[in-house]
Structure formats: structure tokens, C-alpha cells
Amino acid sequence: MVRVKAYELRSKTSKELQKELDEMKHELAQLRVAKVSGGAASKLAKIKVVRKSIARILTVYNQKQKAEARKQYKGKKYQPLDLRPKRTRAIRRALKTEQKFMKTPK
Description:
mainly alpha
């Protein structure tokens, strides 16, 4: 297989990405068997390309999942922790601006 491009992967659906991931993992297993049994140098060099392709597919897949989750929780009161802005712990616990300037009525 040739190197996969991230922009090509982004146009595919999640099902297609899963299918391609399975194919790549299968190919990697075959290449590892060839390595053990003393395969050609071209096959050994291909292992790196396949591993990087698997990483690209997983990256695009995870980005799609996260974007989908963001879309689902947009405008909701609560969000999962991994979708909230990170910042620093101190900033997250500090009072919000409107809370800082609130005054109690007399």
C-alpha cells in the first residue's frame, strides 16, 4: 500500500476509516511475519510506512469522533471533561468576571 494522506482520509466516513485501519493492521502483521522469516529489504522498509499510516488513520478517526462530540454538546449546560477548555487549574477554579463584581442587595 502507498502512504495515505491525511486530507484524503478526512473525506472518508468512520466506517471506511475502520475498514482501512483493519487492512493496514493486517498488512503490518504480514510484514512482521516476513521480517521474522527473513524477508526482502523492501518489505522491512515498508513496516515504517505502514505504522505511520496506521497512526494517521487513528488520528483522523479520533479527530472526527471529537468533532462529533463537540457538535453534540454545543449549547448544552454541561460538557464532558475532555471537551472543556484546559487552561490551568488555578484559572479554572477562579471566579468568573460576572461573579467577581456581583454585590448582594441591601
